[in-house]
Structure formats: structure tokens, C-alpha cells
Amino acid sequence: MQIDDVRVFLAVVATGSLSAAGRQLGVGPMQISRRIAALEAQLQVRLFQRTTRSVSMTAEGEAFLSYATTMVDAADSAQQELRPSPTRVTGTLRMTAPSVFGQAIVMPLLPGLLEAHPELRVDLDLSDRVVDLVGQGLDLALRVATLADSDLIARRLAANPRIICASPDYVSRFGQPATVAALASHVCVILQAVPKWPLIINGVLVRHQVQGRVVTSSVDAARAATLQGLGLAMLTYLDVHEHLRTGALVRIDLADAAMESLAVWAVTPSRLFAPTRVKVFLAELEKAFSRIAAR
Q1: What is the domain extent for residue 139?
Q2: Which segments of the chain have a pLDDT < 50?
Q3: How many structural domains is the chain composed of?
Q4: Core-most of 16, 154, 191, 228, by most CB within 10 Å?
């Protein structure tokens, strides 16, 4: 049932004629008549007795009137509730982010965001697995890994290069490598997802084998092991930026190799009708990236 046909029905009831209803809605009486006829055909009842001079409701029309009023009120309420507003942020922001990135970057944003928008709720899945946005009904995914081709909409938010880092304690005991070849004399903390370190040597991406005594599937565990002085690690900058700032970790640059440049991407199911809650959150996230870049 077309809600616009129901609105036409209510306009005819309110004005008492097809022509007056047409003037109210800005259309001709012939179009009003066709819309009423379509509604009657769908309901399989006659709603009005119509002559060239008058229009009156049938008993079925009177019975339908309360339903029609409820339907239009519900439709108007739904539009008012769901229509994005530039100032009012409501509903639940359902999103996913990599675990360590979410803890380091996303979680610090939530207190201010929730205080500024009392009607907002956040459902945050911190996971290093790739979550199905559409299947899980999510508004947004933040991703750091290289994106595979898909029908999803991806927007680059910030650079997030890989870096080699170590604790000051590790460096004081074992020194730090200056070249790719020197990595062979160092113990490394290895992520299962990146068993060979991607290094750009002479402009070419090379997967370089490193040796380590700690291998883990968790970025959080790899960072913890590095902080404990258990070896060098290759992590992304935003996962460790605060530890670099405080000196808990030190950055190690190789003279003959550059690091792979990754980025943070905001991935959404569609570019159309993005909820205000998504836009407001991404605006706060980009402010956070600007503050980190300015340090």
C-alpha cells in the first residue's frame, strides 16, 4: 500500500472534494481520482461515493479512516526519527576496529563523544578479523590492512606506516640494527599474520625473513612483548604512537630500507544516507589523527 495514496484519501476526507484535495496537494482532480481508485483496488472496497457534485465516505471508508490516520502518523514519526540531523546524534553506532588500534585511538574518543551526544550509543567490536559489515548490520569498519576489492565504500583517513621498534632496555643490551643485513643478529617478535617483514629495498617490496623466540597472532601481545624487551617488532605507527611519545619504545630506522606505507580506512556499506552518528564519529576521529600528526 502506497503511503502517498493514503495521504490522498485523508486529504479528500478533510476537504470534502477531489478538486479541493488536489489544490491542497498541488495536483489535479484527475490524479486524485486515480490515486483513490488505486487504493480502492488494493483494498478491494469502495471508499467514497462519488458524483459530479459531491463526495461522501462509504461505511468501508469510515472504517478505514482510523487505520489511514495511524499509518500516516507512523510514517511521519518514522521519518522524523530516522532522518539524519546535522545537530542531533541518535541511535547505536555499530562499528568494528582492529583490537590495538581500537584501544589506542577509538576508546579515548568515546567519553567526549558520548558526553556531547546523550542519545548516542556505541556497539564496538574490537577484533583483528575482517568482519562482514552487511551481514553483521554494522555502520562502519576501521581497517588498517591493505583492502581487498569489494562493493563496500572505503575512505582513507590517515597514514599509518609500519615501523620497527624496540624497548630502550632491549636497545641498551643488544644495540639496534642499522641495515637489513644487521637484522640477522637480532631477535624479533613476530606476528603470525606477517611472518616475513615487508621492506622496501631499492624501490621494491621485499618480504624479509626474521628470527624470533616469540610468535603471536595478537598485535596486543606483540606490543606487550616488545615493551618487555623480548625483541624488535614491526608494528604500525598508530598502534604504538603513545609509547614512542613517552619513550617506552624507540623507533628504529634502517639505512638501506624503507617501511611499507599503510593507511587507516573507514569502510561503510554505502555512500548513500550515511547516519549522522557515523559522520560525527569520523569527524572526531580525523581530529584525533590531526592531533597525533602535530606532535
Answers
A1: 91-160+263-294
A2: none
A3: 3
A4: 191
